[in-house]
Structure formats: C-alpha cells, structure tokens
Design goal:
- The chain has 191 residues and is mostly beta strands.
- 8% of the residues lie in helices and 33% in strands.
- A hairpin with a 3-residue loop joins β5 and β6.
- The chain is elongated, with a radius of gyration of 27 Å.
- It comes from Tessaracoccus lacteus.
- This is YceD family protein.
C-alpha cells in the first residue's frame, strides 16, 4: 500500500509480463465470463534451467503445449500438457539418455483484486505467463536419479567399466593387502 491507502497494481513478485515471450498468452477474449474457454496448441522454445542434476530439457528445444484456458470466478484456470525432449545421463553408468516426456499442467491465475499469496499466479494486463508454472511442473517431475534402464548395472567400482556391456565382468577374488602374507600359510597363491 502507498501512503494514501491504495494498493499497488502488481507486487514486485508479480512483475509485468514480457509480451514478446512465447510463454505469455493473451486472455482478454475470455472476458471474465465464467465458463468461457480458449484452446492453445503451440510449440514454444524451452526456457533456461529446466534441469535437475544430470537430466533436463535443453534450452531452446521445442515444447509442445496443449492447453485449455477457462475463465472461472477467481481467474483463469489453465490445464493441459507440455511435451518436451529430455536429455541427460544415467546416474549409474553415465551413458547418455534421450527421450520425450509429457508433463501435466494445472494452474489458477487469479484476476487482479483477489487476495493472493506472493506465490500465486496472477492475470497481469490481460495476460498469463506460463514460464514459472512450466519450470515448477517440469523440475518437480524430473527424476532425481535418472536411469537408462531400471536394471542398469552401473560402473565397476574398481576400473570404471560399464557393467551393462558385460554383466559377468569381474576382477577375480580380491585379497586385502594386509592379509596377503597369510595366504602362503595355507598354500593358496594370491590373485
């Protein structure tokens, strides 16, 4: 609030959207009529930092959006999916992983004038900005320890060999060097 008791239109956490962004969509045609709907089928470039650890969506790669924007009493409800290319490394064997995954999006953008928390999304200047919602959705659903296969054998702890290439890979019986002198007492020879 300013010194005269008036609220500001947009808080610092709800900045004006960059209308040039491909993730900013106009909602003025919904006209605050509850039930009014708009369908969006678009291909947009992936924003930066859609990454968790060793896997993520490459910046600038295509994201296919299939969304429905519906006017409700409080604001605009966005539902749909975002399909994106994933690229990264297996957390066990470090081989490259590439694939496609779909992420469910559901977010309510509140109209100005509603009491909302700082984390809530707002309709600003008759637009909604999907970037933060997309980032939150994708990052929360990415696997923290991605695997190339559910039964990945990983790397040999002794030599780093990818055990998926030869599951029978071994180095023979290993004897602790502190006990190696004792092997002569039994007539066994150390490997």
């Amino acid at each position: 609030m300013d010194g005269q008791g008036r609220g500001t239109a947009v808080s610092p956490t709800h900045a004006q959207p960059d209308r040039r962004s491909p993730l900013v969509f106009e909602v003025h045609e919904l006209g605050r009529r509850a039930g009014a709907m708009k369908r969006i089928d678009a291909t947009v470039p992936a924003p930066a930092e859609l990454v968790v650890g060793v896997i993520g969506v490459p910046e600038g790669s295509d994201i296919e959006l299939e969304l429905t924007l519906q006017s409700v009493t409080e604001g605009v409800l966005v539902t749909g999916t975002a399909t994106a290319q994933l690229r990264g490394q297996c957390s066990r064997c470090l081989t490259g992983i590439e694939g496609t995954d779909s992420f469910d999006i559901q977010e309510l953008y509140f109209y100005p004038g509603n009491e909302v928390d700082e984390e809530e999304s707002l309709v600003v200047d008759e637009t909604i900005d999907l970037e933060e919602v997309l980032r939150d959705t994708v990052v929360l659903e990415l696997p923290f320890t991605p695997l190339c296969e559910d039964d990945c054998l990983g790397l040999c702890p002794d030599c780093g060999f990818n055990r998926n290439l030869d599951p029978t890979h071994t180095h023979g019986d290993r004897i602790d060097p502190r006990w190696s002198k004792l092997t002569g007492l039994t007539g066994d020879t150390p490997n």
